[in-house]
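Protocol step 4 of 5: obtain the predicted structure for the target chain.
Materials: sequence only (see below). No template structures provided, no constraints applied. The aim of this step is simply to have a reference model before the mutagenesis design in step 5. Sequence pasted as it appears in the construct record:
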Amino acid sequence: MGDILQLKITLLETEPQIWRQLLVDKKVTFFRLHHIIQLAMGWSNAHLFEFKVGKSRIGMLYDGIEDYGSEESKLINALTLPIDRMVKSKGKIFYYEYDFGDSWRHEILVEEIFSNQKNINIAVCTNGQLHCPPEDCGGVYGFYQLLEILNDKEHPEYKDAKILVGRKFRPDKFDLISVNKKLAKLDKYISL
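Step 4 output (structure tokens):
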């Protein structure tokens, strides 16, 4: 097996699809992969997350919060589990959910596995499409409603929508350079 996974991360239920392509060191933990996805997609790490690989669930374990999964699907600690323990082959598909309220569900496809000849440190974004929806806008359905409002300056909620997304929000733009600048400073963004 190679040292680098080429992953395509697609935000489900979006049309056209919102996606990112990443090169990720196979030894990073699922906790770090969560942060890599946060930066690549444009999320702000304000909510809980969970990965699903087959029947396995991987996420954060917190003191005082009990996992109600069945014995065979108890939550595995994302802090200590490297990706390559669960994801071993090209073509493998697994899932990532962020914000259980808005339910931003992502499909992750392992497109390629290759040796680290490009000296990838932890992660690099190589491609992507469209701007990520803003946090707390009501999931995919709420995001598309928001886009309709933003396209109608006469809509009674237009000003509130502009405040939510900010002046520079362009749903059709993906800024690869900005994402890679953030990924280069990954450790700055990670906090427990």
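Step 4 remarks: Residues 30-41 form the longest helix (12 residues). Residues 131-173 form one domain.
Proceed to step 5.
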